[in-house]
C-alpha cells in the first residue's frame, strides 16, 4: 500500500482574502497560508519570536514578503535565525522593541503562489479538505471535513449527508484518484469501511 502523503502547512490556518473574495486559483483553495505566529519581542533591536507553523521553514528568506495579522499587512523579512524550535525574525521598518511589540500574537502568512510545489501524488491538506468523495461505483459519499495524521498514513474523515463519518486511509488501495479541478476524491470502499 502506497501512502498518499498530505502536507499540513495550510491546515493550520487557511484564510480567504480580506475583502471576502477568496480569489483562489482553485475552488476552496485559500489565498493566504499561515507560516508562523509572532509571540514576543526579543532584545531591543526589533527581533520578535516567531512560532513556526510551516512544514517548510527553509523557504523563509531575507527579502521575502510575509503578510501579518488579520489585515494581511505586507512586511519585508529582514532577517531570521533559529532560537530553539522558534525563529527570531526582524521586519523592515520595525527596529525597536516598542515597534515590533505591536505585532505580538499576530499570525504571519505567505500567499498560495509562494508555497513550494509538492511531488506528484502529494497534496496540501487544504487541497483535500472540502473535496466531494465519490465511490468506485459513482455513489456520492460525502465531503472530506478533516485529515487525521497517524503514524502509518493520513486518514480522511468524510461526513455524509446522513449517518456517521466514514474514515478512509489515504493510501492507493483506497484512494483511486484526486481531481482538484472537479473537486472530487474517488475511492474504493472495502468491507468494513462504511459504518453500520
Helix/strand order: EEEEEEEHEEHEEEEEE
**Total discrete domains:** 2
CATH fold title of the largest domain: Elongation Factor Tu (Ef-tu), domain 3
Strand percentage: 35-45%
Text of the CATH class of the largest domain: Mainly Beta
- What's the arrangement of strands in the largest beta sheet? 3-4-7-6-5-8
* Helical content band: under 10%
CATH architecture of the largest domain: Beta Barrel
Shape: elongated
Textual characterization of the structure:
By secondary structure, the protein is mainly beta. It has two domains: 6-114, Elongation Factor Tu (Ef-tu), domain 3, CATH 2.40.30; 129-187, SH3 type barrels (Roll), CATH 2.30.30.240. It is 5% helix and 42% strand. The chain has two helices and 15 strands. It has helices spanning 97-101, 125-128; strands at residues 6-7, 14-15, 32-42, 47-52, 65-68, 73-83, 86-91, 107-111, 123-124, 132-135, 140-149, 154-159, 166-169, 175-179, 184-187. The strands form three sheets. A six-stranded antiparallel beta barrel has the order 3-4-7-6-5-8. The longest helix has 5 residues, at 97-101. The protein starts with 5 loop residues before the first strand and ends in a 9-residue tail after the last strand. Mean pLDDT is 83; it is low at 9-25.
Amino acid at each position: 500500500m502506497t501512502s498518499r502523503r498530505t502536507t499540513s502547512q495550510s491546515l493550520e490556518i487557511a484564510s480567504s482574502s480580506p475583502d471576502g473574495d477568496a480569489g483562489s486559483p482553485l475552488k476552496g483553495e485559500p489565498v493566504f497560508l499561515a507560516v508562523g505566529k509572532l509571540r514576543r519581542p526579543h532584545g531591543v533591536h526589533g527581533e520578535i519570536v516567531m512560532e513556526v507553523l510551516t512544514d517548510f521553514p527553509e523557504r523563509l528568506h531575507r527579502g521575502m514578503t510575509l503578510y501579518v495579522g488579520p489585515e494581511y499587512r505586507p512586511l519585508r523579512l529582514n532577517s531570521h535565525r533559529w532560537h530553539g524550535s522558534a525563529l527570531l525574525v526582524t521586519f523592515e521598518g520595525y527596529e525597536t522593541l516598542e515597534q515590533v511589540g505591536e505585532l505580538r500574537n499576530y499570525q504571519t502568512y505567505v500567499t498560495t503562489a509562494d508555497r513550494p510545489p509538492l511531488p506528484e501524488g502529494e497534496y496540501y491538506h487544504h487541497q483535500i479538505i472540502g473535496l466531494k468523495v465519490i465511490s468506485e461505483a459513482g455513489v456520492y459519499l460525502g465531503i472530506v471535513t478533516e485529515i487525521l495524521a497517524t503514524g502509518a498514513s493520513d486518514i480522511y474523515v468524510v461526513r455524509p449527508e446522513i449517518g456517521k463519518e466514514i474514515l478512509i486511509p489515504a493510501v492507493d488501495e483506497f484512494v483511486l484518484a484526486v481531481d482538484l479541478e472537479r473537486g472530487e476524491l474517488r475511492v474504493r470502499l472495502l468491507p468494513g469501511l462504511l459504518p453500520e
